[in-house]
Amino acid sequence: xxxxxxxxxxxxxxxxxxxxxxxxxxxxxxxxxxxxxxxxxxxxxxxxxxxxxxxxxxxxxxxxxxxxxxxxxxxxxxxxxxxxxxxxxxxxxxxxxxxxxxxxxxxxxxxxxxxxxxxxxxxxxxxxxxxxxxxxxxxxxxxxxxxxxxxxxxxxxxxxxxxxxxxxxxxxxxxxxxxxxxxxxxxxxxxxxxxxxxxxxxxxxxxxxxxxxx
Length: 214
Fold this sequence. Notes:
Distance between the termini: 36 Å
Strand content: 5-15%
Domain GST N-terminal: 1-77
Structural class: alpha+beta
Largest sheet: 4 strands, mixed
Oligomer: single chain
Order of helices and strands: EHEHEEHHHHHHH
Radius of gyration: 17 Å
Protein name: Glutaredoxin
Number of strands: 4
Strand order of the largest sheet: 2-1-3-4
Organism: Acetobacter tropicalis
């Protein structure tokens, strides 16, 4: 049995979880407290998730895990990749995570089930974003760059089942990004993007965060 150690909010962890769902491979999902530094350091020498445990051996790095699991049997992620999509993800990272991280700190994720776990997250992430309270008070205008990015994405979505028409690593990266988007309330998704994120959620068995959106 595979064991996958994650945080529920973490987009890299979403990537690792996706391949198990897409391949219908059973695994144990173990959510660590965000302030637990000792456990991941014992496994891979640093505080980082996801971590895959297999037969007493540990593997970090989300896409290494994806490649390893996809190699079990006939690979699934064999479709083409699109450099324009990779560029879209790169462009979206800054504005997305500025808005995502303060909302994640407010959400009822299990890795924040202790006061210490939530405080650790806020303390470490505010070093790069500034005060979460300031970001959350910016209002609807702060979300306009994200809305524009979603409009830019829509023409790139070739199919609800696979962004480029056949499943590829682009789907791993894109759904993880859209999963983070789903925590941000007040966004409207173009029809092609909405169909894609809902279909991919079902295919990989990972719920979107719409019901927690802030």
